């Protein structure tokens, strides 16, 4: 049996205790939300926790009986493993073989079971793996809950109701700032849309700049192979509200690598590739901000996943 559930009416989940990450002015004019310091190492833990808590509240997940399944490049999987552990709920993940091997190893280390490697070696996609296991749940002795992060609106609610209010509260440290230029990328588009909507609701004027790898055009569903895991993932971001995108900037990998190195030398923080892509746009932009404005970006995850094993 398989269950997929959305968050009802974007209301707060039954358990809302969470770690608050820092918002720091890492360079003049540039505010960074340190989502890399979340448990699990990224912003994805917020959506995972929200989805799991909501599903348990509605009975879609029965602790000790249900197995959560998802296809993921890693970060959402960490969040699921951490969110499910207190509830004695197993997690199975289909992770593409091209993703960071270090991430794959650590997913197993924190308790997730990686499935479908033999199928993917023969050409199956992670989606194919999940679909096969859902169709054969009875044979496998599983009652699955498919979190389906690309269709589950709870991902947006998690950031609109949790991340954005945190940022708004932390922005009190800069009381003169009323305008934000939010530089972000999109996989599902949940964090970008949720945070932007939440900050607008908090009374801030928000301009959004979407960062994409060179050659990709998510608006028109054009994608090319690239090295920036977690963004422009081959499908149009289902939760991205294009009406709020003021501008799109394309970045190439050489500039991303240079931004990662520059940021590490100037601040001491080693960040992941999607973060570095946003920083390659955000850092020069920050120098142009007026007194009442700041550039805002997320440090989505740290860079240790992307170093050679």
TrEMBL record:
**Pfam families assigned to the protein according to its UniProt record, in alphabetical order:** PALP
* Cofactor(s) for this UniProt protein: pyridoxal 5'-phosphate
Name of the protein in its database record:
Cysteine synthase A
Which domain of life does the UniProt lineage start with? Bacteria
The species is Caballeronia sordidicola
* InterPro entries linked to this entry: Cys_Synth/Cystath_Beta-Synth, TrpB-like_PALP, TrpB-like_PALP_sf
Does this entry carry the keyword Transcription?
A: no
Q: Which GO terms describe its biological process?
A: alpha-amino acid metabolic process
